[in-house]
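During the no-cost extension, the postdoctoral fellow (Dr. R.K.) reprocessed legacy sequence entries with the updated structure-token encoder. One reprocessed record is reproduced below for audit purposes.
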Amino acid sequence: MKSAPIPESNDEPVKVLVGKSFKQEVLDSDKEVLVEFYAPWCGHCKNLAPHYDAAAKKLANNPNVLIAKVDSTENEVAGVDIQGFPTLKWWGKDKTADPVEYNGERNTDGIISWIKDHTEYDWVEPEGEEVKEGEL
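Re-encoded structure tokens follow.
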């Protein structure tokens, strides 16, 4: 399986995964992980990027959710079949289960809403979006 080198610095809101780090960061993790498989030249991927980054920033305070991406032109992941770009897959709490194909809206609020609907952990409200009294 091909893999780019593991990034030396990886502290952006969207975690960069490579073939060599995928198992450790996704399958061996207690976190639920949404992974975007993309190609740098893909127009749809470029359109998704700012929304995906914004969702990751808003969910950064959620200790149970990881937002990640894999450059599929440089990396392969065993058992993951990618037919087109971008492909988003959700690895839930039970890592023995197959990942769920993301089918939500491809904007910031849509991504956050979809994750909220699919997480098995207690939900942690996104940064700056605390529920105000009387809104429950």
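Confidence is low (pLDDT under 50) at residues 131-136. Residues 43-58 form the longest helix (16 residues). The remaining legacy entries will be reprocessed before the final report is submitted.
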